[in-house]
Amino acid sequence: xxxxxxxxxxxxxxxxxxxxxxxxxxxxxxxxxxxxxxxxxxxxxxxxxxxxxxxxxxxxxxxxxxxxxxxxxxxxxxxxxxxxxxxxxxxxxxxxxxxxxxxxxxxxxxxxxxxxxxxxxxxxxxxxxxxxxxxxxxxxxxxxxxxxxxxxxxxxxxxxxxxxxxxxxxxxxxxxxxxxxxxxxxxxxxxxxxxxxxxxxxxxxxxxxxxxxxxxxxxxxxxxxxxxxxxxxxxxxxxxxxxxxxxxxxxxxxxxxxxxxxxxxxxxxxxxxxxxxxxxxxxxxxxxxxxxxxxxxxxxxxxxxxxxxxxxxxxxxxxxxxxxxxxxxxx
Amino acid sequence: xxxxxxxxxxxxxxxxxxxxxxxxxxxxxxxxxxxxxxxxxxxxxxxxxxxxxxxxxxxxxxxxxxxxxxxxxxxxxxxxxxxxxxxxxxxxxxxxxxxxxxxxxxxxxxxxxxxxxxxxxxxxxxxxxxxxxxxxxxxxxxxxxxxxxxxxxxxxxxxxxxxxxxxxxxxxxxxxxxxxxxxxxxxxxxxxxxxxxxxxxxxxxxxxxxxxxxxxxxxxxxxxxxxxxxxxxxxxxxxxxxxxxxxxxxxxxxxxxxxxxxxxxxxxxxxxxxxxxxxxxxxxxxxxxxxxxxxxxxxxxxxxxxxxxxxxxxxxxxxxxxxxxxxxxxxxxxxxxxxxxxxxxxxxxxxxxxxxxxxxxxxxxxxxxxxxxxxxxxxxxxxxxxxxxxxxxxxxxxxxxxxxxxxxxxxxxxxxxxxxxxxxxxxxxxxxxxxxxxxxxxxxxxxxxxxxxxxxxxxxx
Lengths: 331, 461
Known about the structure:
The structure holds 2 protein chains of 2 kinds. Chain A has 6 helices and 12 strands. A 5-stranded antiparallel β-sheet of chain A has the order 2-3-4-5-10, with no helix packed on it. A 4-stranded antiparallel β-sheet of chain A has the order 6-7-8-9, with no helix packed on it. The relative contact order of chain A is 0.08. Chain B has 16 helices and 6 strands.
């Protein structure tokens, strides 16, 4: 049976003119580069199955995406489908690595250095410059041109901001007579300021987002205040206003420590939640704790005829984080 | 006849590029087999996930601080005034299908990216793999790490939620504290005093999605080329592993499926984390305003060492008369990370100088093989870690009821004492391990000699 088939094939190949006169001698097997290993059909099946699972997960992702509206999109299901797809492919590749390809440890030389060529390079450079007599002059001129070109290229970057005009860092929108308003723009009346809580205030008609704008306003017992000299009358009725921007790193002074039982608890303080700089409002915003290096600037207040709070001048010191500049307004 | 590029791509490419020798060399490039060598690959694959998810996010993010009133899917924020930037991220989270998944995966990928770089750095340090001829790889890797920190910070600063704004304010304060140039520099970057002018958000954006990723990709490419030029280090696992001969699994077929599998595992892990573990729920923080702040705010983990340093620093500005010379945030926010970077950058050169060892090292040390380096590394890491841990002192106060004040006091001492103790202990430990090994080796040699003597008369028989 087999012989007949073989004969038939031979005849057919001859007729079609593609066969050879004699069956080819078995060609010498080229030496293998990659080590041989035996086939593993079960591992192949496993890889196919895992890739099939990946297809299912991938379809699951697409179907989930299509089926749900944004409002009730199940994020967990979406992610598990995509993650499952990725994971299945990862496991399939692991099976390939462990059971379908040969993982052989080979040896090789670590790369060498090339002292001969190093010298040659140096020599090429040296010889190339042998016609030049005044190397230093040329190099200096080249460096000057290159540096100038670089500086010229960087010059437009000066338009990024007012580099030299650091005045804006020191300015605040507060002027004598500026009214204090709340977040909705309504004026703050002195009577509305209660003890044991704090208020955020802004200058009327100015941009509240300026770092010099926001105030923290509190009311304390006027008899217990020990404000620095020169701040007499800055706290009408015990109402104090400080910049709300911490002098350490510029966060908002968003915490007001207010003792529930004053005899044993620390007295009221203004605290920044970023690094816990703590300021004592009784003494005009001096630092009592934390990393801040200078007091919280205080804003002098007055109460006008209508009972509204107004600024009686500008802050006692510079607002915002410190920088290479005046520490406090010289008195 | 020209070969069909699909049927015979190798021939097609070689005939056009003459690159068959390079391709062949690449296929048989050897990877020494050790699990710790995969940490760098994890970082690489996390970067791939960051790029892919980042592209999606960039298509929906709106880098503008123009104000808008929210009337979107997340009703608790309805009617709030917020920036377009913040609104677009809330929309990515709630109004675009799979947007939340991609956003959270992106954020987790950033955290894992930096974490795997740090682990990789520790592996390289403690095995002495930074030594000649690999100092350049080490330097590029360090610049990569610090660039990645900046990239992560810019990423979460873009969103303009409350936490991101607080982070930017601190960044502004820290930048302002650089002596002499701080003020002009911050005015240049922000365009105006904090919170900056209308260009600032788009500057952040182009830095986060183009400039810094381009730099990262370039540094990664240089890092990889430098590795390939010198090959990996290897441990002395057998007599075959020497300074001159590398033993490893070839790129193809051995290493490729394993490395690709790792890539898919990393991606799967990040996507599943993005699906199941909430990260930075910006809709809960609300939009940022300079006058708002919240207690208990924490940055992403990789900036924890900086918040710790800012909080640990005693409160003073360096002043002369009424002039501030060095504001406080400089110490923790600028000097501390610069010292860390400087020590790590110069370590290979200092070590070479003090050990007078300028030989080429392709064999990796085990930590015990270099007691001083290991002890120094442990002490140095513990110093950074303690500063990092103090960054969470306010959380420890809330969760464990540990007084913040007591912690501050304890940490100010511990950051100096603990590294000193760990240095001494680690060095002793390394030497003890070495001594134990030499005892073991002598015993084995002696037993071997006894064996030989016993066998000799028998063989003469």
